[in-house]
Write a structure and sequence with these properties.
This protein is of the alpha/beta class and 318 residues long. It folds into two domains: 7-116 and 186-317, P-loop containing nucleotide triphosphate hydrolases (Rossmann fold, 3-Layer(aba) Sandwich), CATH 3.40.50.300; 123-185, Histone, subunit A (Orthogonal Bundle). It is built from 15 helices and six strands. It has helices at 19-27, 55-60, 77-93, 105-113, 123-136, 138-148, 150-153, 161-174, 178-185, 206-222, 225-234, 243-246, 250-257, 263-286, 306-317; strands spanning 7-12, 32-37, 63-64, 97-102, 195-202, 292-295. The longest helix is centred in the C-terminal third of the chain and has 24 residues, at 263-286. The mean pLDDT is 94.
Length: 318
């Protein structure tokens, strides 16, 4: 490693893979400070359904970029990059190592490669897209995006309305896909500033991860997830189109409270959405360069203990 640059660590992985536990274990061994890379954890009041570390855990292992936004706000990858770079600089300036932990792969990508310059929004085009979505459904527009920009479409859920709309808008305005624009305009790579070591927790058997996801969702409900979303609805200024309310799990419980889903449907939809999120995260990670994989399971499928994963991580981190 180039000793003239400060060091930084990325710890990535799909949802429910044990990233937070491993990050806290690493912080007991190395002089690191934690930075959250999670698009839901930025929002205040999204605690249970986002699997936010507990107040006790945060007191012992402080995380930057948690609880920095009101749910009525929209937090972007560009804003994340600015906030993360500032936190990294401050941590490195004190001789500590920034450890960035989370599963929002778009944020990791923006941080690592910089942000492409995109055109301003076109209200007329957006109105047309939204009218088509109301008639045909977002999966039909996702299929259209797949024909134009298959690489980006593979990253998106067929109902991810905001990003599908923006991708089609960019293609309409520029004649280029967002994938093309990113490749042309990426700049200010983080590797110019930091020596980066990248770790990713990966499942050996996806069915085991699916079981963990289902169990975690059920435990969230037991801990008061529905009451948490009910309190958000009671504010009166939040709605389903906000990024915070579109977060996995929150959308489904919101729909349940609105009478759009019954309880079993909500549970099934919440677990299914979380599994889809994990699938997208794993797709990102399989294509991610320069990453050291840590298997979350033993060959027989048994979940590995955090101490075992910690030992493997420390060998890589040195």
């Amino acid at each position: 490693m180039n000793s003239s640059k400060p060091r930084a660590i990325f710890l990535m992985g799909p949802t429910a893979s044990g990233k937070t536990d491993l990050a806290m274990a690493i912080s007991d061994q190395l002089p690191v400070e934690l930075i959250s890379v999670d698009s839901a954890l930025v929002y205040r009041g999204l605690d249970i359904g986002s699997a936010k570390p507990t107040p006790e855990e945060l007191a012992r292992y402080p995380h930057r970029l948690i609880d920095i936004c009101d749910p009525a706000e929209s937090y972007s990858a560009g804003r994340f990059r600015e906030d993360a770079l500032a936190a990294m600089e401050e941590i490195s300036g004190r001789g500590k190592i920034p450890l960035l932990v989370g599963g929002t792969m778009l944020y990791f990508r923006a941080l690592l490669h910089g942000m492409a310059e995109m055109p301003e929004a076109d209200p007329a085009f957006r109105a047309d897209i939204e009218a088509r979505a109301a008639k045909e459904g977002w999966p039909a527009l996702h299929a259209e995006l797949e024909r134009v920009d298959p690489a980006l479409a593979a990253e998106l859920h067929p109902n991810h309305s905001v990003r599908i709309e923006r991708a089609l808008e960019v293609y309409h305005l520029t004649g280029k896909t967002m994938t093309q624009l990113r490749a042309e305009q990426e700049k200010d790579s983080l590797t110019e500033r930091y020596n980066i070591q990248q770790l990713a927790i990966m499942p050996r058997d996806r069915s085991i991860l699916h079981q963990r996801i289902a169990l975690r969702f059920e435990r969230m409900l037991e801990r008061g997830f529905i009451e948490e979303v009910r309190a958000l609805r009671a504010r009166g200024d939040l709605h389903q189109d906000l990024p915070a309310i579109r977060a996995v799990g929150y959308r489904q419980v919101w729909q349940y409270l609105a009478g759009e889903l019954d309880y079993p449907q909500m549970v099934e939809a919440g677990i299914a959405a979380t599994r889809q999120l994990a699938k997208r995260q794993l797709t990102w990670l399989r294509r991610w360069p320069d990453v050291q994989y840590i298997c979350a399971q033993e060959p027989g499928g048994k979940i590995r203990k955090i101490d075992e994963m910690l030992s493997e991580a420390l060998k890589f981190l040195g």
